[in-house]
Amino acid sequence: MMMIGRNGGKLAAAGQRLFTTAALRGVSSGAAPLKTPWLLAGPARTVTVSWVRAPPIGLRNGSTLALGDRAEQPHRCDEKAASGAGSAGAGGEEKGIVSYWGVSPAKVAKEDGTEWKWHCFRPWETYEADLSIDLKKHHAPLTFLDRLAFWTVKAMRYPTDIFFQRRYGCRAMMLETVAAVPGMVGGMLLHCKSLRRFEHSGGWIKALLEEAENERMHLMTFMEVSNPRWYERALVFAVQGVFFNAYFLGYMVSPKFAHRVVGYLEEEAIHSYTEFLKELDNGNIENVPAPAIAIDYWRLPPGSTLRDVVMVVRADEAHHRDVNHFASDIRCQGRELKEAPAPIGYH
């Protein structure tokens, strides 16, 4: 690349370069000072002009830095890069990520002082599931929208029963890829509504996003015990694409209908996990040790099994059932969600 000076002269023709100006503080680092009244307003000031060669690919735009900062910044980056490369070469480990912006992953420890190995959630986000929740509660469909929501969910369950039959591990994975969508869609739409109207949400944005994250953690757990086939993964793409857009439109038209649909979906999830437990108790599915991620997320005791995981997941689904039926009831009364405190932390 060729750079042209102010008077048309050729300043540089070899390679791609950065041109930086740094205000002189005390001592110059070998560069010749220039009087450049056309650069600065007022009387002429002394600046240091330096050329820095940079590779033609991956070039970062130059910045104007104070001389002291300019002198220290490259050394800090070089030291970090060298230490990362050294540790990778000596131990065969991956290089550490060097952040120009000073962002680095925090090291978190468990209560016993051992290192926390999960980046997707932190110790303060874990909890013990409430297994005493009533699993048999059911919202009887009374209105037209209730009946429409009820039979919509029943219609969705029919092809699922045919496709998965008694394969409850893969069935659970498919269920969670769908169950994690409504909370995210509802939270997103309430978020945008809060911005448009300049109003609080009553905590419902956080509550629905918590639901979505909890459902996603269910999926991350069952990934450890099930190996979906290629056509099941393809089915997830199709079902999620259709369901996301359908639920988005449904929530835009009628939030009370959308929340009622999720309430009935969670009732079906409770039924599916109850059948899962029966298969485990009958020995048709091996009761393998619980994945490490599940033990940490639900604070399960050491030695927990897949059955214990299914128990806590089923309890979570019962809580989501209650939250969404509650949200639908609020809307059915002609009220806004923000008028009732959101059940934050109610897994």
UniProtKB/TrEMBL annotation:
Q: How does it sit in the membrane?
A: Multi-pass membrane protein
Q: Which GO terms describe its cellular component?
A: mitochondrial inner membrane; respiratory chain complex
Q: EC number(s) of the enzyme?
A: 1.10.3.11
User: Can you supply a Gene Ontology BP term from the record?
Assistant: alternative respiration
Annotated region Disordered: where? 70-92
Record key words, sorted? Electron transport, Iron, Membrane, Metal-binding, Mitochondrion, Mitochondrion inner membrane, Oxidoreductase, Respiratory chain, Transit peptide, Transmembrane, Transmembrane helix, Transport
What the record notes about the co-factor is: Binds 2 iron ions per subunit.
| Entry-linked CDD domains | AOX (cd01053)
Q: Where in the cell is it found?
A: Mitochondrion inner membrane
Q: Where is the composition biased (Basic and acidic residues)?
A: 70-81
Give one GO molecular function term. Answer: superoxide-generating NADPH oxidase activity
Question: What does this protein need as cofactor?
Answer: Fe cation
**Catalytic activity, reaction form:** 2 a ubiquinol + O2 = 2 a ubiquinone + 2 H2O
Recorded superkingdom = Eukaryota
- Write down the top EC class of this protein: oxidoreductase
Entry's Pfam families? Answer: AOX
Q: How does it assemble?
A: Homodimer; disulfide-linked.
> What PANTHER family is this protein classified in?
ALTERNATIVE OXIDASE
Family as reported in the entry's similarity comment: Belongs to the alternative oxidase family.
Protein name according to UniProt: Ubiquinol oxidase
Instruction: Recall the taxonomic lineage recorded for the source organism.
Output: Eukaryota, Viridiplantae, Streptophyta, Embryophyta, Tracheophyta
Recorded name of the encoding gene: LOC116205234
